[in-house]
Amino acid sequence: MKKLHSLIWIFIVLFSIQSGFSQTQNKSEIEGFNCYTIMVGKEASDDGSVLFAHIEDDFGKQLVNWYIKKAEVYHEGEQIELKNGGLFAQVEKTAKMLWLEIPGMDFSDSYLNEYGVCIASNSCSSREKDPDITDGGISYRLRGLMAERATTAREAVIIGGALVEQFGYTGSGRTYSIVDANEAWALSVVRGKHWVAQRIPDNQVMVLPNNYTIQEIILEDDENFLACPDLIDYAIKKEWYDPSTDGSFNFRKAYAAENSITHPGNTSRAWGAYHKFDMPFAQDDIFPFSFIPKEKISKEKLMDIFAYHYEGTELDISENYTLGSPYEMNGSMICGKATVYGFVTECRNWLPVDIGTVMWLAPQWPDIQPFIPWYCGISKIPDGFAKQGYLNDLSDHYNPPEDIHDHYDGHAFWSFVELSSWVNEDYGKRITKLRKQKLRLEKKLLKKQPKFEKIALKKYSKDPASANEMLNNITSGLATYSWKMSNKNKR
What we know:
Blueprint: H1 2-20, H2 25-31, E1 36-40, E2 50-57, E3 65-69, E4 72-73, E5 79-81, E6 87-89, E7 93-94, E8 97-101, E9 110-113, E10 118-123, H3 141-149, H4 153-167, E11 169-179, E12 184-192, E13 194-199, E14 205-208, E15 225-227, H5 231-237, H6 251-255, H7 264-276, H8 299-305, H9 326-329, E16 339-347, H10 353-356, E17 357-363, E18 372-375, H11 394-398, H12 412-425, H13 427-462, H14 464-489
Antiparallel strand pairs: 1-2, 1-14, 2-16, 3-8, 4-7, 5-6, 8-9, 9-10, 10-11, 11-12, 12-13, 13-15, 16-17, 17-18
Helix pairs in contact: 1-13, 1-14, 3-4, 12-13, 12-14, 13-14
């Protein structure tokens, strides 16, 4: 315990010293309301960073493993085999990645690679029932391959689009959110071989629940739009779009499942963010792809939204927890019962990517767990954040062992789950103390971040390896500390 505390106080005390001197993927797809995303362009954030906030929702009993997947070199002629048998050429070298892995799930992993490209996704149901699929299609590996190969968000979009066109996407539909330190992109794929991508304007914010948000597109503007060649022609062929009566082409109207845009499970969660941003939208409005915020957005603001249960509005059936837990009463929420983690990734182009890109990660429920900084430059994960002996190769992910979801004390995730369950039993009484504790730690970390990074930068300019080891120590120490806090709080 003394060693643990010394690691934590490296982050909090060092500066005073220095200044002194699933279940299966099919179930997830059926549920429909899985995940939530906000992306902020660099001119819309308070410090010039691109911000990417994501809630990962997966119904049923789940497990999250944290890994560092090392960069790998391959020989000419090597191939990758997809889950359903498709083959294509491997690249010479893949990127190192921070990988949040959920056993058995085809649509749930998130990635942050060594170039600062961060990828996650939201289910978005399409109306396609008769897809074109080649060699079994692609699903799970799509985002992983983008993360392994892309050096920018735009490059990830191009890679992902090409894979969809080659093999065909096997899920109903999905939007992949992809950012780097300069751009944020939404890549929407449809069951089969059709896709479109739009860049979030630098001065705007995008809110994404579980429906397509891309609407009118300008294919001639390839700085801001990318798509498969027959996107519009195919919609005309399927009688989803008639240019003689429908006006300009609207991707969402043409390709989205009929009830996904107006379903309360989507509109209420989207409205929740607009309400917190003080934007003048009603719950029954057709929300835009993106908007110009009234004021610059901070990562703290996004963290606050990710702990939101509609408090103070008519959607809070729990009446500020007096009638019970919001998780049991408020239906579909931004931070909901199926949430397994939330993160806010900040991407700053004026710093080396190892230090300038940080995933602030809150495991399980972000209203209870503090957001802890995981730096892009880390090369290892603390003990206890992945199941031992699991995932020797990707076949383990596709077919995990039967006991993968059995609780055991040696994995941090189960402690986070236990604490959430305990709080949920008497939410109104138990959340107050934990929220104060969470916010107090976050405030300290955010306050000390600039000083810590100044020291790390100084080290980095002389010896990057030494600086990255410093990042390892801080990330590991804080992540382990949050685990210990959970064990202590649930007693």
